[in-house]
């Protein structure tokens, strides 16, 4: 696992006119749930994010492993930009078309074997994505090591076209070279994000690339539970920033 970057102090943020927020969804804005479909958006979160977006001149994005369509379902008309599938799909502004990276095809044999694995290990759930798949074993923890070995075997045969990313009780197989760091850099090139200092917040090893990219661009990267004990504490912090005056931001 990669090393978490050295993070700036929470009490010194860029002022709203210079800040851009790029936020993970699951485990960060919302609590982890047994299945992706069962997450609950906390009361008031959408309003908090809209206020924060207004304060930062629209520079608020969600950077998620989920498809963009799912973020639109849970946070309709809330973020200005959305990067889905760890940066494979990016929509830079409301109403704009979704840009998709050129990707290698996912072998059908993986899909077929994944379904057989789910049948053989009750509690394992397969999440199909346009550019890969995720082997979730939260419902069958003992199956985790075996699934990881199988995923490694699959990607080794692609000679670098795909890689396995460890996540929370899951193995995600996705194209190499595209991650949340790529997403942060891509989003920050376009208005209203360009020229601002990115503040990236996530909770998982898959978010560390985004943290490093934000720090590399002069901003900050924070991680739950290292900097916030849980998503509820992070949501309260966001509400404080959205409701407070500019002096609450430091800078």
From TrEMBL:
CC cofactor: Mg(2+)
Reaction equation(s) it catalyzes: alpha,alpha-trehalose 6-phosphate + H2O = alpha,alpha-trehalose + phosphate
Annotated pathway: Glycan biosynthesis; trehalose biosynthesis
Segment forming the signal sequence: none
Pfam families hit by this protein: Trehalose_PPase
Keywords, alphabetical: Hydrolase, Magnesium, Metal-binding
Enzyme kind, highest EC tier: hydrolase
GO terms, molecular function: metal ion binding; trehalose-phosphatase activity
EC number: 3.1.3.12
Family in the record: Belongs to the trehalose phosphatase family.
Protein name listed in UniProt: Trehalose 6-phosphate phosphatase
Species of the source: Komagataeibacter xylinus (Gluconacetobacter xylinus)
